[in-house]
Design goal:
By secondary structure, the chain is an all-alpha fold. It is about 95% helix and about 0% strand. Helix 1 runs antiparallel to helix 2. The chain is rod-shaped and about 245 Å long. The relative contact order is 0.03. The mean pLDDT is about 80.
């Protein structure tokens, strides 16, 4: 009887212990189920985050690829700009050289223009001198014309004036007397006249030659100037 009671007590203790352990196991199961649910939720969130990170990584790769393409395009444009910049520098250098050449040409033209102005002024002065010389030459020519007219008048005078006419020999005059008293004085008078006329003609000829020579020299001087 006593053994039965002990066994019964032991059985009850075992039953209580089993119930307690079962309760604990059920609680632990609930905790594990709750933890498993949380883990599945966390896993689901991680999967979602993984997908999102994968999409972001894909976008980043696309952006990186686009950045690489853009960088290559920028490098190509940079090379084009460097080439164009080099061409512009060459053009600028050429323009600088051309501008320097044009400045030199402009200086030369200004100097040449000043020379032309000086020559123009010299020509004006020479023209004034030439006009004076032409007027002087004209006066000299008029004087020579007047001298020629006087000479022609004198020549006519020699043809018509009585003192230049040889008289007829008188009926009672001898040939020798007529020669000595009339002809020889008349011939001497003619010789003197011819001598004076010859001197005047030579003088006029020299004056004409001198005037022509001076005119030629003046003309050559003007052309050379």
């Amino acid at each position: 009887m006593q053994n039965t009671t002990i066994e019964k007590e032991l059985a009850e203790e075992a039953t209580q212990k089993a119930n307690k352990e079962r309760t604990i196991a059920q609680q632990e199961k609930k905790v594990l189920l709750a933890g498993n649910h949380d883990l599945r939720m966390e896993n689901s969130r991680l999967e979602i985050r993984k997908d999102r990170l994968s999409m972001e990584n894909h976008d980043l790769k696309q952006k990186q690829l686009q950045l690489q393409i853009d960088n290559e395009e920028l490098e190509r444009r940079h090379e084009d700009l460097q080439y164009k910049n080099s061409e512009l520098r060459n053009v600028n250098d050429q323009l600088f050289d051309d501008n320097h050449t044009l400045e030199q040409q402009n200086d030369s033209l200004q100097s040449y223009n000043q020379e032309l102005r000086q020559k123009y002024n010299d020509l004006k002065q020479d023209n004034v001198k030439l006009e004076k010389q032409q007027n002087e030459l004209k006066r000299n020519i008029e004087q020579m014309v007047q001298s020629e007219q006087l000479l022609q008048r004198d020549v006519r005078k020699y043809d018509e004036a009585p003192e230049w006419q040889l008289p007829e020999q008188g009926a009672f005059a001898s040939a020798k007397s007529f020669r000595d008293k009339v002809v020889m004085p008349f011939v001497n008078k003619l010789k003197t006249l011819i001598k004076n006329l010859t001197i005047q003609c030579l003088r006029l000829k020299e004056e004409v030659l001198q005037l022509r020579k001076e005119e030629i020299v003046r003309g050559c001087g003007i052309l050379q100037g």
